[in-house]
Amino acid sequence: MTYRIHPALIVFAAIVFFFLLAPLVIIIGSALSDTTYLTFPPRGLTLHWFENIFEMSAFRRTGITSFQLAFAGTALSLLVGIPAAYALNRYRIELPSWLSTVYVLPILVPEIVFGFSLMKSVTVGLDTPIFLTLLIGHALLVLPYSVRVVSASLASFDFSIEEAAISLGSPPLKTFFTIVLPNIRAGVIAAFILAFITSLNDVSVSLFLTGPGISTLPIQILAHMEQFFDPTIASVSVLLMLVTVAVMAIVEATLGLTFLTK
Amino acid sequence: MKHFRSWSLALPATLAVLLLLVIPVASTIATTFGESAGPFAPYIAFFKSGFRRTVLFRTIEVALITTAVSLVIGFITAYVIARMPGRLKSIAIIAAVFPLLTGVVVRSFAWLIILGKNGILNDFLIWIGAIAEPLSMLYTEFAVIIAMVYLFVPLMILTLVGVLEGIPNDVVEASISLGASPAATFRQVIFPLAMPGLIVGAVLVFTGSFTSYATPQLLGGERQMMMGTFLYQRAMVTFDWVGASTIATIMVVVTIGIVLIMSRIARRLNPMAV
Amino acid sequence: MTVSLDIESITAHYGHTEVLKDLSLSVKAGELVSLLGSSGCGKTTTLRLVAGFLPPTKGRIKLGDKDITRLPAHTRNIGLVFQNYALFPHLSVLENVAFGLKQRGVGSDKRRKRAGDMLDRVGLSPYAERLPAALSGGQKQRVALARALVIEPPLLMFDEPLSNLDAKLRIDMRVEIRKLQRANGTTSLYVTHDQEEAFSISDRVAIMNAGKIMQLDHPEVLYQRPANAFVARFVGFENLVPMKVSERDGDRVTAEAEGGGSMSLSQDSLGPIPDEFVLAARADGLSVRRAGEGLPVTLGLRTYLGRAYQYQCQSTAGELVANGPLSDPMEQGGAAVLAPHFEQCCILPVE
User: What are the BP-aspect GO terms (chain C) (predicted)?
Assistant: First the structure.
């Protein structure tokens, strides 16, 4: 670089990184504390609170529901999102320009408003099963990631390659899977990861859609916190952070983390 | 049908959004205008009530402060990251991404531990002798703001690192070769070129904090009710769906209004997109 | 104010890689010198060192009598023209040109006037209020040129300024750059990978390879009398034939190629000939004949050039390229001799 940065700025950035990471370290520390209340630094070390999570059926059940929702919701959003992204890029002139705005509505409309409206119109209005409404909510919530991230990678895809394959005798649908999909692989993986994490961590949409017997992990954590203030929550948080680490490892292995700033 | 193929591919996603998002949200908004007391009755009631006005203004205030603080912190940090050598830069980006991928509940929860009566911040302040008795910092506007800043700074950093890295190096070098000092180059070249990114970041943070639920719920509680928590309370505790829909409509109007206005400004400021 | 530029035995590194080794170069006051070479040869590095964007590990850079080696880049007062124009996208054309004046504390009215005059000189006055994005490539480069010239720098540097323009515009622009440079008498350093561009625009050209200057001279000399095999190949001598002197008779020398074929050469036209040397010739400089004195070859593929036929020839010295007359097309696989036109050949030392 042409010019060095002022040392004061470097110090400032270091403090910011401390501010970003210290709270997470504090959670890990409190999860290991051998006390019945939350404290940091931990007094005595124990893994007891981790065992506790698995003994509490509420965490186990909602954890499973959350992962099911994240997988199914993300898959559903990609299932309708990839064709939409393809159509937007391949047939740009045929489709109206407002269409791409439609697909970002789920992040444009406040999540909590979306959750509330879905509860009113679908759960109550149509009397749908709770899991189905949750699935609809999550799939729609993450649809913008599917469409936009896949679109971004289709934007740099050269469609003449697809035409070349078709001219060589490959049928259109097969061409999509053998030629287009492998070339937008990075975009699909990125979309999957962003969507999955968003769904897994969602509070505002799920808030209104959970019901008797079916809840998601973040909602369960919130409910637990209102009654107890023990290290169980910290240890659940640590487990969720481990999921994040796993996801980042996947991103790093497949795409490289720098793609996140693009 | 002329554009059969393009439409058949785009239709499932389009229908899903229209039927399951646009119609329900539109019906929420419509609810507020169907009152027998007159079309604007719920809004008149909302703005007549001192408590509800306070909630709205508090939410706007918290969102504005969060946005301003995140902008300053995010911009300086992103500027330093953008100038780091390759390896250090990846580490810094990982450090910023990690909190972003960790859930809102987990990240807000950390501040419960830090700011509590027996939390580490109180312990620390007593230890250095700054205070004698623990302060009650939870369930204050300060607690909500600090947790929200914590929530949104990573987003701001990532947005701005992308923008700063997009500024071509030779434009910066051109400025230097023409005699502009590092400070002048920053003021006259880098900052104006980062402006559209600052606007995008500000919109993301403002709308995000304006409509948030988990953070105000955990750190503000009943005492620091904000629009998100207020909406939930109206809908699920008092079952006042018209009142809840009114809050929802105000949230939609503010959010979409800000997005439209700011994206228009950003477009005007973006010289690359002529 | 015209001053000279002296680069004195500069060494530079990128990380741990040495990109320039002990490089020296002098540009006389008012002269335009080009650095010519393929990518990675160190030409752009040299320019960045002079600009102050890269600190040298060793050596000294002097502008006139002033040592600028350790001077911060923004205080060097050097006009730079970039390959990608590097215009400020958020400033109007006029503001772009006035930018350097603003840094020098020139008042608002005065700098608008001077920037306006400079835009006039490059023919862009009507575009003064536009943003750079609204201009064509050629217009952008004119703005970049005006922006560098308006600060009246003692040294102008160009980094591949024309490589993003189309062929026709490239020729117009290089004439324009040369005219402006001549009119101002500004000492200039010009980096390019385009031989024709370098030769047409420069007083002298430095041909670079692997961080070293292979030869620095007037374009005519480089083109006709390359000093070594690298430069010879670079300027289009396709045929390099190693030879040995077998007989000397005053000015006349008889030499033999490895594997047969002898010819007699004149030191009068070719200069002094050492006992072992390399004969360098372009395709034009070797004539294909059915018989006579010259290098024996087997003819390969024949292509039609319009003014002549060109043959790929197989000789004991390797693959050679030579031209033959249109009046006498020869068949592939036939035997022939290549006779040099000595006025178009040159003698290189063995390396």
Answer: quaternary ammonium group transport
